[in-house]
Amino acid sequence: MKSILLHTCCGPCSIYPVDWLRKKEWTVRGFFYNPYIHPYQEFKKRLHTLQILAQMRDLPLILREDYDLEDYLRQMAFREENRCLVCYSKRIEATARLAHKSGFDAFTTTLLYSKRQQHNLIRDLARCAAKRWGVDFVYEDFREGWKVGQETAKRLNLYRQQYCGCILSEKERFAPFQKTR
Questions:
Q1: How many CB atoms lie within 10 A of CB 91?
Q2: What is the pLDDT of residues 25-45, one digit of tens each?
Q3: Are strands 26-33 and 61-64 parallel, antiparallel or unpaired?
Q4: How many Cβ atoms from other residues are within 10 Å of residue 131's Cβ?
Q5: How far is CA 59 from CA 32, 110, 145, in A?
Q6: Which among 9, 7, 6, 4 has a CA at the least distance from the CA of 153?
Q7: What is the pTM for the complete model shown?
Q8: How confident is the model at residue 128 (pLDDT cuts 50, 70, 90)?
Q9: How many of the other CB atoms lie within 10 Å of CB of 162?
Q10: Hey, what domains does the chain have and what are their CATH numbers?
Q11: What's the pLDDT score for residue 180?
Q12: Region 96-105 average pLDDT
């Protein structure tokens, strides 16, 4: 079986992609790298929930627990409209680099699962990173399994976050009358 590195943003978003990849006969390893999830307690909740799911689903994980608030603030100051590009790029690039250096056959990301992400941008960034690092990128529109994944997360009683991850997306979720984009 071929091996694939799956960038994982959280437990609930990993359910459907892991199942789909395994059905396609991939050996899956999860990679948690999400340095811009804020605040820190939210970051820890998502990491912990992924670890619970990984135990339930026998999913080996590679964890990077970087929490770089200062880098986030430097990257976003006066460029808030580019926040998703910066965030996606950082995580996808790290995933492609790790997949290459660790000898995986390919990589993909759970970012392709969420209905709320910029799907085409994620796909294009991943294709560029794949070319740069010489490792295959497996593209799949995991959004078709969104409902199944969410229902499974509820049934498993997993923590499900209420916003994408960055402090600006938290603001948009809980103070929607003050859009940042």
A1: 26
A2: 999 999 999 999 999 999 999
A3: parallel
A4: 11
A5: 12, 14, 19
A6: 9
A7: 0.94
A8: very high
A9: 9
A10: 2-174 (3.40.50.620)
A11: 54
A12: 98
Residue showing tokens 């970087």: 66
User: Residue 99 in contact with residue 65, Cβ under 8 Å?
Assistant: no
Q: Report the alpha-carbon distance of residue 157 to residue 115 in Å, rounded.
A: 21
157-176: per-residue pLDDT in tens?
Answer: 999 998 899 888 988 888 86
| Region class of 68: left (phi > 0), else alpha (psi between -120 and 50), else beta | beta
3-class DSSP state of 106:
strand
For the cut 80, the answer to whether the pLDDT of residue 178 exceeds it is no
* Tokens coding 59: 């999913």
Tokens of 119: 């799907």
